[in-house]
Specification:
Layout (H helix, E strand, L loop, with lengths): L2 E7 L4 E7 L4 E5 L6 H13 L3 E6 L5 H4 L2 H8 L3 E3 L4 H13 L12 E2 L5 E4 L2 E7 L8 E5 L4 E5 L2 E2 L2 E2 L9 H10 L9 E4 L5 E2 H7 L5
Parallel strand pairs: 3-4, 4-5, 5-6, 10-13
Antiparallel strand pairs: 1-2, 2-3, 7-8, 8-9, 9-10, 11-12, 13-14
């Protein structure tokens, strides 16, 4: 059974997730740890729970989701997996940090590319990949059907949806991704978003003003 541990990191209040099961194998998704103390918090959790980190997964490559990616790659000797469409986003992170006066970002490169329908395996567990562009051109979500949850990044939030006022965003594509991918899931699927609290598909189907 997968356990989900979340951390809120950086001034952007980004949700970083560590998923692990009874084998102690784990994946880290969207490490947003920018400050050294945040990196130590993440590493301490991994150590205390005797986790074996198998992969670094990115829903997308906006700066707040990759602040700690180089650290995770180096610390645990793992590859970084993302969609190939995120390459221009990842390449722009260092310049955006400079423009915004953000210090401490260590540039990182992707190692492997994944897409819709691929499966990520760790321990006794699996995550199915959905391609859900809009907030970012190569945005992915990670679904576990056995436990009925989605690690959704910045696609669907409680009462809201991802921003589309950044370069390479597309609001129509975002809404289409939500309607054709997320909303085909049953109401009890829980969505763990890239910011703020988790929600459920059913709650958003009934109440989200961007979807009703």
């Amino acid at each position: 059974m997968i356990q989900i541990q979340s951390f809120v990191f950086s001034p952007f209040q980004e949700n970083t997730y560590v998923l692990f099961d009874e084998t102690h194998e784990a994946v880290i998704i969207d490490p947003g740890c920018l400050m050294q103390a945040e990196k130590e918090t993440l590493a301490q959790f991994v150590t205390q729970n005797r986790l074996i980190v198998k992969a670094l997964l990115q829903t997308h490559a906006h700066l707040d989701h990759v602040f700690g990616s180089a650290f995770v790659k180096r610390k645990y000797g793992v590859k970084m997996w993302m969609h190939k469409n995120e390459l221009p986003i990842l390449a722009s992170v260092e310049n955006r940090c400079q423009l915004w006066g953000i210090r401490g970002y260590e540039p990182v490169e992707a190692d492997e590319f994944i897409d819709e329908g691929d499966i990520i395996s760790f321990g006794n567990s699996q995550l199915e990949i959905l391609f859900v562009p809009g907030h970012a051109p190569g945005h992915l979500a990670f679904v576990n059907h056995a436990q009925r949850f989605v690690i959704g990044g910045d696609v669907l939030f409680k009462g809201s949806v991802g921003r589309t006022d950044f370069p390479l965003c597309d609001h129509e594509a975002l809404i289409n991704s939500i309607q054709t991918k997320f909303m085909t899931l049953e109401d009890d699927y829980r969505v763990y978003a890239g910011h703020m609290d988790s929600t459920t598909i059913g709650y958003e189907r009934r109440t989200n003003p961007f979807l009703t």
